[in-house]
Amino acid sequence: MEIPPPCGPLSTRVVEVMSGRRPSLEVTSGQGSVLNDRDVQLALWLIYELSYRGFDGVDLALEWDPDLVRLRLRLEQAVEHELRTATQARVENALENGGDVGDLLLQMVQDDQGPPLAAYLRRDATLPQLQDFLRERSVQQLKESDPQAFLLPRLRGEAKVALAELQYDEFGAGRPERLHQTLYAQSLVAAWLDPGYGAYVADVSAMSLASTNVMSMFGLNRRLLAAGCGHFAAFEASSAIPSRRIAAGLDRVGLVAAAPYFDEHVEADAVHEQIAARDVCGALVADDPGCLPEVLFGAACVLHIDALSATELMTRWAAESAEAPTEVAS
Asked: pLDDT tens digits for 44-55?
């Protein structure tokens, strides 16, 4: 994969380091949300990608470059602080309810009142809007379950076995053609989009980058293990019903061949949510009851980011529809 073009001072500095130059990587304090700051999110994504597939012509040793690692830690600190502030009330409410961690996680997802993105995609979205949705999600889905693979060596016993069982399904259950990343690439092809890994990094929104960055942050920091497990459980629990609606929307506009990826998740995630919430997170909390707030924090991050992402997409589409010229009858 080629290095995508930078979009601001931070991502420019990261690209320069990857290209062999040594600019200052000092982080200046900005204003507003870092989750919605595309320059911040692209810089963080670029650094994280060094721990995945990397970039053409970029020295593999840069994965542990001290300057890039220091910058990554500073950016992660800002992202984590914003997420903890935004999700604090949701986590506290769940803790007040008490009960089994699996029940708390699944109830948190069920009670979520985020924007109705999946319902809109099913009933009203145009073909270009569905293509836009697939494009925005490609950065995340073409590396589906890769961030969670970093959690496995940090778990033990029942939690490790349960996560390995889920990962086996996510990675195709022994069949390369059933790899979920491959199924998503096939959806992109069916929608006349580029299936290449990272093909749309230069085009997607800050929130699409943030969605995958938060998964990497949880996966690559051992201190955030419990949050990573909670994030994974909520991600699985919030997938089955939206996937059914998205598949119906794709069928509605004639993109039938793009639906199998989502059809797969209707069945799989209905089972996966129980295993992730009750077996992975349940075993983790049984072993260390003190990690329950962190598990719930990770779950709350899914819901918060999904709401921000859905709002961004639907607001953009509404603005584009309002600006579109209307035909005047002669």
From this structure: 999 999 999 999
What was the pLDDT predicted at 322?
A: 82
Can you list the domains of the chain with their CATH numbers? 9-78 (no CATH), 99-323 (1.20.910.10)
Asked if 4 and 42 touch (Cβ cutoff 8 Å), the reply is yes
CA separation for the pair 241, 238 (Å, rounded): 7
Q: 210 and 302 in contact (C-beta within 8 Å)?
A: no
- Supply the Cα-derived Rg of the chain in whole angstroms: 20
Q: How far apart are CA 58 and CA 19, in angstroms?
A: 7
Contact 119, 245 (CB under 8 A): yes
> Closest by alpha carbon to 117, among 276, 277, 318, 320?
318
Cβ pair 159, 277 in contact under 8 A: no
Question: What was the pLDDT predicted at 304?
Answer: 96
Give the pLDDT confidence of 152-191 residue by residue, as tens digits: 999 999 999 999 999 999 999 999 999 999 999 999 999 9
pTM greater than the 0.85 cutoff: yes
Asked whether the beta carbons of 211 and 147 are under 8 A apart, the reply is no
Record the tokens describing residue 233, joined without a space.
């459980």
Q: How far apart are the first and last CA of the chain?
A: 51
303 contacts 109 by C-beta, under 8 angstroms:
yes
